[in-house]
Amino acid sequence: MRSPYPDTGLLFSVFGLLVFGWVMIYSSSAFFAENRYHDQFFFLKKQLLWSVIGTGAFLLAANIPFTFWQSHIKPMYFATLGFLALVLLVGPKISGARRWIHLPGLTFQPSEAAKIMLVFLVADYMDRRQSRLKDFKRGLLPLLLLAGAMLGLILFEPDLGTPVLMASVLFTLLLLGGARWKHFFLLGLSSLPVIVVAIMKVRYRLERLFAYMDPWGDAKGKGYQLIQSLIAMGSGGFFGKGFGNSRLKISNLPECHTDFIFSVLGEELGLLGTLFCAGLFLFLCMRSLRIAKKAPDAFSRLVAAGIGLTIGFQALINMGVASGLFPTKGMPLPFISFGGSSLLITLFSVGLLANVSRRAPAAPEKGR
């Protein structure tokens, strides 16, 4: 017998992260929003609106049969490629990159949709061609070419962080699905020159790498953001300065309500707050893997695992950048950072997880 309700642990963690996000977006953006838009709630109201739209996407994904998604993999894949190509042609250039498509009343980032499309693609391919995965030419190579087309278009935006995130999810899913280790060793060696060229060819990436290794060497330039982030997190101590009491968010810390919101969280809520936030993400990822383990079929099992890995890896990268563990990369913290496209796709993804959890066999009643 199947449970009619989604996994309660999943819903708890998602709601907790959403509320946490609303609180931190208001705290980190109120001063800037008041000065720029004369409304301290400007970004919070936008995030709340996207939360409502995202809840609709969650309910849609939670109730549409999984057979629909698997039967429409090809048109969804080519539509994703089309949008990724379109953004390179007509997308506005912002901070040297073309990543957004502007529609009436809506700004959409196709690379966000590509994350979930990659999970669908890998899950469907592995479900249909499981027996061929150990054969590189007939099994693994076609999938790598299909995925590589999406990653390549995103790389040209230019955006290196998202392809690295997607490739990490792809390789992990393939390993979980039974692909050979030696193939990944060879792929890792062959991909190193590509990563080196991608960093060397774009000047700001090379500058970010040097700033990561020695941010104080260019404290007023490329190392400025990382230094301010480290100061913010370090000054918070164990308990933090208190909600709304961050000083660096006022003028010193750029992107404090988007990519570096975790730094404000650390300053205001301290180590305790950052551990609580990280714990919610860990709990969400563990529930995702638990849902995947109980999934009724291979396709939904791989989708559930892929979603959990995508959210977990992205959160890890964002928190690692804010803490100085990874080079600076503009990547939002799921549920927490301000951003419509990211929140919409993330809630849609979690809706798929809820769908899988509802289709899992319910636990037998006691006494039976």
Overall pLDDT score:
88
Report the principal-axis shape: globular
Total strands: the figure is: 2
Q: What number of domains?
A: 1
Helix content: 55-70%
Report on the biggest sheet. Answer: 2 strands, antiparallel
Give the N-to-C terminal Cα separation.
13 Å
Strand order of the largest sheet: 1-2
Computed Rg: 21 Å
Beta-strand content bin:
under 5%
Description:
- The protein is mainly α and 368 residues long.
- It has one domain.
- 70% of the residues lie in helices and 2% in strands.
- It has 14 helices and two strands.
- A two-stranded antiparallel sheet has the order 1-2.
- Strand 1 (101-103) and strand 2 (106-108) form a beta hairpin.
- Helix 5 packs parallel to helix 14 and helix 7 packs across helix 13 (298-322).
- The longest helix has 33 residues, at 261-293.
- It is globular, with a radius of gyration of 21 Å.
Summarize the structure.
About 70% of the residues lie in helices and about 0% in strands. With about 375 residues, the protein is an all-alpha fold.
Question: Can you tag this structure with a few keywords?
Answer:
single chain, 368 residues, mainly alpha, two-stranded antiparallel sheet, 14 helices, 2 strands, globular
